[in-house]
Amino acid sequence: FFSMMKFSALTTLQEWANGCQPDDIFPLAYHLTTCLDVVLKKGSSLNGANVGNEEQWTLMDAMVGQCAASVQESLAHLATKNSHTIKCAPEPEAWLETLRPKLSPSPSLDKTQAIHSDTKPVQLAKPVQLDNQGDQPNLCIVGNGMVGHTLLEALVAGGAHKKWNILVFCEEPRVAYNRMALSEYFKGRTAEDLSLVKKGFYEEFGIKVLLGELATVIDPVNKTVTSNKGPTYPYDKLVLATGSYPFVPPVPGSKGEGCFVYRTIEDLEAIQAFAKKCKRGVVVGGGLLGLECAQAMLNMNLETHVVEFAPRLMAVQLDDPASRMLLRHITKMGVHVHTSKNTSNIVGGDKKVEKMVFADGEELETEMIVFSAGIRPRDQIARDSGIKVGPRGGVEINDYCQTEHPDIYAIGEVALHRGKIYGLVAPGNEMARVCADHILGKDGEKFDGADMSTKLKIVGCDVAVIGDSLGNTPDSESCTSGKSSQGVYKKVVTNSTGDKVVGGIFVGDITEYNTVLSIMLNDLPVPADPLSLIVAASEGGAAAVGGVQDLPDKAKVCSCHNVSKGELICAIKDGKTELEDLKACTKAGTGCGGCIPTVKELLDWQKSQMGIETTNYVCEHFKMTRQELCHTIMVKQLPDFKSVLAECGSGQGCEICKPAVASILAHTYGDNIHRVDLAVLQDTNDYFLANMQRDGTYSVVPRTPGGEIRAPQLQKLGAIGQKYGLYTKITGGQRVDFFGAQAYQLPKIWADLTEEGFESGHAYGKALRTVKSCVGSTWCRYGVQDSVGMAVDLENRYKGIRMPHKFKMGVSGCTRECAEAQCKDVGLIAVKGGYNLYVCGNGGMKPKHAELLATDLSDTEAIKLIDRFVMFYCRTADRLQRTARWLENLDGGMDYLKKVLIEDSLGICAELEQQCHTLISKYQNEWATAIRNPEQRRRFVNFINLPDDQQHDDTLTYQQERGQNRLPKLTPANPYPLPAPVLKPVSALSGNGSEWADVCKLEVINPDSGVCAKVDGVQIAVFRVVDNQVYALSNFDPFADANVLSRGIVGDKAGILKVASPLYKHNFALETGICLSKSDVQIPCYPVRIHDGMVQVKSSPVAH
Questions:
Q1: HEC-encoded secondary structure of 886-899
Q2: Which strands, in side-by-side order, build the sheet including 1018-1024?
Q3: Strand, coil or helix: what is 552?
Q4: pLDDT digit string, tens, across residues 409-461
Q5: What is the pTM of this model?
Q6: Helix 909-921 to helix 859-876 angle, to the nearest 10 degrees?
Q7: Which of 742, 376, 433 is nearest to 559 (CA)?
Q8: Nearest CA-CA partner of 157 in 575, 436, 561
């Protein structure tokens, strides 16, 4: 029966369309649509009359639906032909008459007889049962974009997963991702980076996702939805979150090879692949999406053109002055803009795009076209299913996001609310929350429209738009402020009485955007002179309005996720006192990101209200930032910690400020970090030139520049590892790592390594670790530059330079990016014109892709720019701040960084280069220096009072695994620092010795440092502090379950002398052994004295 109906529809189409012209396709489409409506009505009336078997009529309804799909499919095919004319387009009833005889299985039967014969009917597959609880209602969500995912999160937050079986149709091959950040894909971010779905989200909440499946038809009567892959699913409630599709103007040639749309990751992958063989690209559309696409083209190194039908860019959002200012900015960035252009034809040979022809007769040659000329609601499934849509598209909804069918909802860009489509994510998310509340039966808010304000960076220019930016509100008033020389234009729109903000525009400088937006959204008072809202505070402007503290608690801070000031305050009071934690908890700032400055301002203010220190001072000893401290040391030429403390600080210092000052001194003067007065400032890793592991032993990593190593060197490394019984592993940075070396073994291992030509790899230091590389043009068929050679040069150039945090680089020989350069602090990617330079990326706990700093650099240009970058980072970053976080906190971000490093806006580039050259010239292999210097070498012992043959620490235990020694397995795998410290009985830490035992001469212990002595089998940490005072504590750190305390940094906390354990930084008072952060924990103290210049101890602890 279905086959005959489908055949009849197709043959009828072909009869009608034989010889039609393109202009006749549209009346044909009208007739076909009308005819199908009649078929559906006839089928419904017959079904409603209960004529015959009910299953047969269910079948009939399904056949009609399939017929409709077939007709649309055929019509789309016919629309591509140019040689047909309509001979005759029959009226709907006439078409039904022609259809009837063709539907009969026998010429002797009419339509009714065929349907009601006794022949056994074809059986439809029963609706698929969802996997969850069979007695629970089914909730189907059609669409898994950003708004669809927000709906899922809102449903889960409300406990819907406990009451509903949830099924999601996801047409794309991947789950929800951040479509607002698509341009980041061209900067190296991956699909995984853009994903909005936390790992295990669907599994945790029992949500079934149909990846790669499209819902094709909904039956509102029988409440089923059918997949393009065949199955039909029952629903009790259904949500349409199908979003929109990109509008492609009906221009001849727009479907040729080289024409694309800009909507999905698959679109971007196709664009990126095709762009590799192009030199020029055109974006059709000068709106938000079009200009974002233009940025992507620039990132692909294409000569970029924008073609816009309107007389100005962003005509819907910007007025003429703002659009002209934006045009200046993006033209300066290298984008060619063509406005008032109506494309009449796209010409191509062999189906490839060659040029665009405009209605005014002008032409533009191009090899690639991307259409980004707006969007249309993706409402076809609603049309096919008889769900009401608006005259110009969009599924009509009420204030609860319900369609005309109460159990079918629509949200996001597919929804038409009060005659308006909302094309931004924030209104869609608001709809999602309203929809979720209604499904859950909550008495939630209605959707009453939404703010369409937005802030973004367009081709390097900051642009923000608020509300009625064009001043269409009756009798509205506008105030403008512009600085053409600086490329800045601002506008605020108020109502006729001037007491309410209704809109605004910001181009080039968006400093006041958040203030003006808050005033509009929260109906706050407007200054007597509204112009003061958009002029700088220094000129009497926005500062007079007040800060975030003046907002009411209900004020909306984040429009994307509907987060109020009150919700943020509650989260901060609950302990979310770090920006990243606050964002993760509330989702504020995780949408478009425009509210982050306001969120941070609110966080700082609330912390101050709670008495939480909000300064970024180094520590209690230095009431200044690291940047201020660095500047002071440079300007006043302070040479050592003593003079720095006297000039800028107080007290004795601590484990925070001492390494920080040591780092600044190192990159300012380039002196050896093991100079006596500098050595005691170093953390244990820098002090022992190796990485301390959890049992107090060390790992040793020799440098292999660029990952390049010769076969004999590999053999030598293997022999050294075997000689000392070290666990051996290849690191992620293309190096060999040896584990399990005790302190006394380090100089011997270094001596063997340096003899074979190896140097320190600085794996222990806040310095350059590695420069990862692929083989590049040396071997690879895709390589366009010698990435290995460049990596070797970079690693040898910057090795040993101390920085605020560890530092990694990468060099890829082509855009395939095998060296993962875009997740490094500095990354070079080879292109035909040289290298593109990316900076401020990192992996780790909070991974971030690097951002593009400069393109097409020669080797010399790249190195010069990296010199400047490294030194500027050293001077301005906070303590232990990776480059990614540094850039995030840098006022002006990447634009400011470009001005400083490329345009030399501060006039310091020559100074930065000279500083870098000085440090490079002072480099020395720290391992070689240590083993040649007897004074330094004697520090590398386990027990200061024992000879070489008694240095081995027999308290260390290992187990064999895969042919190597490793530390014992733990359960859980990493319980440190131990919440319940290992408190050994006094007898275990007592040698029961009543006699004084020699430790060493006092001068052997450097001031403000410690050593370990082994007396009567007990490890005792002995410390020398100010005025030659000495203290003795147990060497055992109960929170680390390791003998390491003697290697900690000595200082004071609020005047109490203490030592910070090197593993987890617990502080113990030198005089009492009490833990300063957990006073119920106390370690043994031992009698100690200086006798004739000799430090002596007793192995029996002092009674507490």
A1: HHHHCCCHHHHHHH
A2: 1009-1015, 1018-1024, 1030-1034
A3: coil
A4: 999 999 999 999 998 888 999 999 999 999 999 887 899 888 788 877 776 68
A5: 0.56
A6: 90
A7: 433
A8: 436
